[in-house]
Amino acid sequence: MKLYTRTGDEGKTSVIGGRLDKNHIRVNAYGTLDELNSFVGVAITKLQDAKYDDIRNELVKIQHELFDCGGDLSAVKKDYPYKANTDMITFLEERIDEYIIEAPELERFILPGGSEASAAIHVCRTVARRGEREIVALKQENEINPVVLKYVNRLSDYFFAIARVINFREGVKDVEYERSAIVFRGGKRKENDTK
């Protein structure tokens, strides 16, 4: 198999059901999920200790799901059978609920970082947020699998939760943003707080 095909030399790429410019909003959206998948792979390499078996296994599962989401976003073919489903969102919500209990209560915004592994997960969180913005832009102009947008939204919350758990398991405190007001009560953000 040849790694290069020369079919993209004019700035076009193949999608499911056609070809698009490489800077098309659809390509940006699924391309960001591919980028996110790579950052998740980097984070996995920093979580090799047995105390992270649960998180590491979940991240590998998420890598497969990101491929599914990317495939769904790359489909311009009308009868394409979407792969992303609501079970994926339910799983993330269940894990988030568990991890919120494990980590110390949070009152203020925190800075990304603490341990190296937690910092790597915060990178995943911010790339997921960018992916979410790009999916929203795509949705405004094109039909998409709505599950993908919900999944990526929940995924960034999941990354935030596990970044805090990783610091906790490492015995490293989260670094609070020093000018933050108290914005969380019992682990949840206060409604109508604009500071």
TrEMBL record:
UniProt-listed GO biological process terms: cobalamin biosynthetic process
EC numbers: 2.5.1.17
Pathway named in the protein's UniProt entry: Cofactor biosynthesis; adenosylcobalamin biosynthesis; adenosylcobalamin from cob(II)yrinate a,c-diamide: step 2/7
UniProt GO MF annotations: ATP binding; corrinoid adenosyltransferase activity
Classification via Gene3D superfamilies: Cobalamin adenosyltransferase-like
Entry annotated with the keyword Cytoplasm: no
Cobalamin adenosyltransferase-like domain location: 3-165
Catalytic activity: 2 cob(II)alamin + reduced [electron-transfer flavoprotein] + 2 ATP = 2 adenosylcob(III)alamin + 2 triphosphate + oxidized [electron-transfer flavoprotein] + 3 H(+); 2 cob(II)yrinate a,c diamide + reduced [electron-transfer flavoprotein] + 2 ATP = 2 adenosylcob(III)yrinate a,c-diamide + 2 triphosphate + oxidized [electron-transfer flavoprotein] + 3 H(+)
Keywords tagged on the record: ATP-binding, Cobalamin biosynthesis, Nucleotide-binding, Transferase
InterPro entries: CblAdoTrfase-like, CblAdoTrfase-like_sf, PduO-typ
Assembly behavior: Homotrimer.
Database matches in NCBIfam families: PduO_Nterm
UniProt family annotation: Belongs to the Cob(I)alamin adenosyltransferase family.
Record protein name field: Corrinoid adenosyltransferase
Lineage start: Bacteria, Bacillati, Bacillota, Bacilli, Bacillales
